[in-house]
Amino acid sequence: MNSPENRKQPVSGRAVDDPSYYRSEPVSFVRRGSRLQGRRLAAWEKYAGQYLYEVPRDIADTSVSRQAGFDQEAVFGRTAPLTVEIGSGLGEAIVTAAAAHPERDYLAVEVYAPGLAQLMLRAGKQGLTNVRVIQANAPEVLEHLLAPGSVDELWVFFPDPWHKSRHHKRRLVKESFADRAHRALRPGGLWRLATDWEEYAHQMRDVLEADTRFENLHDGEAGGWAPRFEGRVQTSFETKALAAGRSIFDLAYRRR
Ligand SMILES: C[S@@+](CC[C@H](N)C(=O)[O-])C[C@H]1O[C@@H](n2cnc3c(N)ncnc32)[C@H](O)[C@@H]1O
After folding, report:
1. Is residue 6 part of a domain?
2. CA–CA separation, 108 vs 86, rounded Å?
3. Domain enclosing residue 221, as ranges
4. What does the entry list as the binding residues for substrate (predicted)?
5. pLDDT tens readout for residues 40-95
6. What's the sign of the alpha-carbon dihedral 107, 239, 157, 20?
7. Is ligand 1 within 6 A of the CB of residue 177?
8. Is 110 in the pocket of ligand 1 (CB under 6 A)?
9. Strand pairing report for 151-157 and 249-255
10. Total structural domains in the chain?
11. To test ligand 1's pocket by mutation, which of 28, 106, 122, 167 has the most ligand atoms within 8 angstroms of CB?
């Protein structure tokens, strides 16, 4: 019933304001305060022309057409290794990395417009030329937009944990997402993850340990957890998690 062929049909049982309404799988986000105002609206107007990559859509407004493509060399005007951050939030991590590594290209994938506006404002103030942003559902970006094997590093930091078991199906990191990550990453490319939700950390590790297409960079060390990735700055989200007394779990895998 929910096969890709009939995904333009609304999925029965989903509310019309559920972003999964037209999709074959539930999405990992909800619609929330996406209206741009004030400083962020001004930032969007000033910087979208420079940083926003407009994606051809399928039926939903955060979807990605199957005919879409992303020509990295044409977009950035050069050849460079590409880091993709999924769910970049306010852009703290990716903009810091882009400023520190002008020799690399960075692509932020986020559905939340105010976060993207904030990211573009940070990048614009620093005059960065090696960052672009995409407002779309990440699994579709990995599956339809990015060329197979085109990503050097994939980052998924603090994906929404969807605590309740009846919502676990909405979690981003699961087998189907690993397929999409595998497709997008180059052989030898790295997938870095972090979460403050212990049970989700175990789910991530279980998914990746069971997937022989990925190799744990810290296999056999302290439960297979990675040390904190030095390129991952402490975001406001992480600050809140630490203040609430939660531990942070990092993982790092190489695509074979
Ligand atoms: C908990 S926040 C973490 C943000 C950031 N990584 C940080 O560490 O501060 C998760 C972010 O992922 C975004 N997100 C969730 N599902 C997404 C999806 N399917 N595609 C793109 N972005 C998504 C949300 O909008 C939210 O901004």
Report:
1. no
2. 6
3. 149-162+184-256
4. 164, 196, 235-238
5. 999 999 999 999 999 999 988 899 999 999 999 999 999 999 999 999 999 999 99
6. negative
7. no
8. yes
9. unpaired
10. 2
11. 28
Question: Does ligand 1 lie within 6 Å of residue 159's CB atom?
Answer: yes
CA-115 nearest atom, ligand 1: 27
Q: Is the CB of 114 under 6 A from ligand 1?
A: no
What does the block give as tokens for 175? 């087998």
Q: Are residues 193 and 249 in the same domain?
A: yes
The answer on 158 and 125 residing in a single domain is no
pLDDT in tens, 163-218: 999 999 999 999 999 999 999 999 999 999 999 999 999 999 999 999 999 999 99
User: Residue 202: inside a domain, yes or no?
Assistant: yes
Query: Is the Cβ–Cβ distance between 184 and 146 less than 8 Å?
Result: yes
Active site residue 160: yes
**Could you tell me the two tokens for 64?**
């990605």
The closest of 91, 153, 102 to 128, measured between CA atoms, is 102
CATH of the domain at 63: 3.40.50.150
If asked whether residues 102 and 51 sit together in one domain, one would say yes
Distance CA 160, CA 249 (A): 14
Contact 173, 139 (CB under 8 A): no
Q: Which residues are annotated as a binding site?
A: 85, 110, 137, 160, 164, 196, 235-238
Domain annotation covers residue 77: yes
Residue closest by Cα to atom 5 of ligand 1? 89
**How many CA atoms, within 13 angstroms, populate the side-chain half-sphere of residue 88?**
33
Q: Which tokens hold the place of 80?
A: 């460079």
Containing 121, the helix (H) or strand (E) segment is helix 113-125
Same domain assignment for residues 135 and 158: no
**Residue 60 included in any domain:** yes
User: Which one of 18, 160, 179, 211 is the catalytic residue?
Assistant: 160
